[in-house]
Amino acid sequence: MRHRYIVKKRQDSLWDLIKGSIDAGSGWLCVLLVGIAAGCVAGMVDIGASWMSDLKHGICPPAFWFNREQCCYPAKQSVFEEGNCSTWKTWPEIFGLDRNGTGPYIVAYIWYVLWALLFASLSASLVRMFAPYACGSGIPEIKTILSGFIIRGYLGKWTLLIKSVGLMLSVSAGLTLGKEGPMVHIASCIGNIFSHVFPKYGRNEAKKREILSAAAAAGVSVAFGAPIGGVLFSLEEVSYYFPLKTLWRSFFCALIAAFVLRSLTPFGNEHSVLFFVEYNKPWIFFELIPFVFLGIMGGVIGTFFIKANLWWCRYRKFSKLGQYPVMEVLFVTLVTGIICYPNPFTRMNMNELIFLLVSKCSPGDVTNPLCEYKRMNITMGNSIIEVTEPGPGVYSSIWLLMLTFILKLALTIFTFGMKVPAGLFIPSLLLGAIMGRIVGIGVEQFAYSYPNIWFFTGECADSNLITPGLYAVVGAAAVLGGVTRMTVSLVVIMFELTGGVRYIVPLMAAAMASKWVGDALGRQGIYDAHIALNGYPFLDSKEEFAHTTLAADVMQPKRNETLNVITQDSMTVDDVENLLKETEHNGYPVVVSRENQYLVGFVLRRDLNLAIGNAKRLIEGISSSSIVLFTSTQPTQNLGPQPLKLKKILDMAPITVTDQTPMETVVDMFRKLGLRQTLVTHNGRLLGVITKKDVLRHVKQMDNEDPNTVLFN
């Protein structure tokens, strides 16, 4: 109606034409603002988190607001070289001790754990006091919101503020969590706040969801520097309904967000991606076997993680533990700090570790223990080739990496779901990268030991072709795919993350294998599993409804109960108000009369309350014995007080089905149209109502699950 009114007014005057044009472009303007804001917030979170992470190790006395990389910027050095940067002071040095030795090590250890505890307690307390919705990753809830359910306050300004600050704190506390999932939630909060600036979006839930889909794309775009991956993630994982217009808006929003983030350069290097890889050697066809093996392992690890994490979350939910969220966070942080400090791989930032695992070894690299190879030349026929054999550093690194893998897997199971902002992408990528790097070193050794096997023939002649870093990239994709069950968006995010476009086929093979294995072992990805655990009313649009029930079996009320209806011209204001008091329904069907239940329309509870309240205040002669009319004709004998005409608030075209409609069709209507309820008729007479919650209950009952697990608030 609003749109028709604007189009009709356009011809009247120039001013109306301008207003109409502004209205038409307000969607693009809204996503532009969302993209800019998301980029700025992400930049702030990245910069704050990197500074606070380095604060656990030391401080930069000339300018305390610099992190270690900026402090040592003139003298370029890698993560492992502590020694030669004189401007950066570790905590033992601040207290007048040396850098190395037993005493300084203990001091550094204690400071590391103390800072971690401080950051984690701040994060958990902020979440607990100001915004309880700011915990977790937020993607399950956003999927639920985009499917047409409203969680009040979930995307509010307090949630946005606390989530951004809490995210910086919990990432820098060294907990095993990423900041990628929460970025989607933060961007969606920004989208929700900006949609209220434009009444076209703020007042219309369906339109608002278009903005939220675009915001989710911007969230992934700024988390990874992967704009196209963000759009595909929104399409594949988050959004429920994704028309072309939303696709273009999401693309634009992700582009703007990535552009703003690029101008803030929080990654500190000239690439706008997290883990840029320099190698671009072709891969051998035989390598598809280990790639698919990595995919299978990724599916297994992902399913194990989902099952273990769900078991722990269920235990937390129904035991005493759930009453002490801050204590739990502190305990996990303490354990994480104590376990992770001694091992150099677990001590460093997770992003830095993934970067080490996916990067290739350059010949002169002495700082990375994964690169301690002995180099020698051997003659083969008439060509000299250089062969590398792993030194002791590589073997000790493999043992440390295996330990890191076990620790990080266990810690992630206990961390994800705690009451701090926590994402899942980076820990999954890390687990996969460790697995991939170890497999890669194994394959490289195999090629080194048997260079003349038929499937290597001629391939290994120029120089060693097998790059362990590539296996780390593929393994990372496999585990992330096993945990979240993404396919297309996962491959695009991975090659945008690393810049390795040559490796799309290995990534696709691993992602597909991981999804198949994961789906065979357990149907749900981590987000769907958490939706089911929290009992959100979410109708999954990916699953089929495979039962033969009819609408008559599901509708309320059942055969012998009465249906609450309003008649079109025989109820008084008093009757309607009593009906509103006694029942809790969202709306009421309007019928011709009690005896003759032909359907006239549907009226919402909210509209009824407002209309009656306003009429009592503003219209003379309306009393509690006035007749409520939903027709345009006056009743003939009008002797009593003035009637109250409410035809304006009546929905004359409610969605209806007949009692013989198969439930499969009804479920499809609920999914595709995002309905809240539908009315059931027989020969035009009203029989009952089916709400979204009735459909969910029915689906649960048919799958032999407990229908009371869904939150019907």
UniProtKB/TrEMBL annotation:
This is Chloride channel protein. Residues 555-618, 650-707 form the CBS domain. Pfam families: CBS, Voltage_CLC. Gene3D superfamilies: 3.90.1280.20, Clc chloride channel. Its main location: membrane. Belongs to the chloride channel (TC 2.A.49) family. CDD domains: CBS_pair_voltage-gated_CLC_euk_bac, ClC_3_like. InterPro entries: CBS_dom, CBS_dom_sf, Cl-channel_core, ClC. It is a multi-pass membrane protein. Keywords: CBS domain, Chloride, Ion transport, Membrane, Transmembrane, Transmembrane helix, Transport. It comes from the Eukaryota. It comes from Drosophila kikkawai. The chain crosses the membrane at residues 21-45, 106-127, 160-178, 211-235, 247-264, 284-306, 326-345, 398-417, 429-450, 470-495. It is found in: Endosome membrane; Membrane.
